[in-house]
Known about the structure:
Elements: E1 10-17, E2 22-24, E3 31-33, E4 41-51, E5 58-67, E6 76-80, H1 84-89, H2 91-102, E7 105-112, H3 118-123, E8 127-134, H4 143-152, H5 154-165, E9 171-172, H6 183-214, H7 216-222
Antiparallel strand pairs: 1-4, 2-3, 4-5, 6-8, 6-9, 7-8
Helix pairs in contact: 2-5
Amino acid sequence: DPDSGDNGRLLYSLVGGQTNEFDINENTGQIFTVSVAGKAGMFYLQVQAADQGTRRLTAQTTVNVTVDSSSSSNVVMLVLNQKISVVERKSAEVQRVLEEKLGWNVYVLNIYSEEFNRNSRSSTDETKVGIIAFDEAHQEVPAEDVKRSLREQRAAVEQGLQEVFSAPVSAAVPEAPAAAAAPERTAAIVLGVLLAATFIAFLAYVLLDLKRKRYPGKVDVMEGIDNPWADDKNESLKSLEKPQHMNN
């Protein structure tokens, strides 16, 4: 809109189509996903731009959005030490700097903060920017390649962003947390330990049983007898004769 003042200030809105799946930045017109996780296909949106003049004028167009589930694995997170409100206003400039320093077509997919409270979000100096890159052949650049390039060009990226934000900027690529052990693997380990303990107990039982069978007399006769060669009133020990060498 070539007008100036309120007549040239545009506000964007979604007025039709699958609006539950998307949202729009009313000031920039940037469309972003809301609940398309796990979905793929074509989505249709009716977008309206309206100026803020006394006689409000509007225009509408249809936007077709193709969601490719394969793209999710190539999204790279960049953490900036800037307030989310500032990053949102400068998103186009952030995208331009990344394209210049990385040499790819870069798209900013989402901008968010870990803080859920709106007031906390505005005061937290840490904002996460999700980006995806495409090469000259319009093919997605693998996430690992994008991360490596961001680390190699970190100084240049931060210098470019410093000019955008007019303040020192830190742009970091967070390291992925170590993957937790899969439930199946944990269950297999526990089962293995239980089987090993059972086998050891069974082996101990077999060895004890063999020992008892090998020395039955010593176990049955000697048990509970202090002097097996003493005379017993009930004559139950008459079969036990004193050895010959004991008579000497």
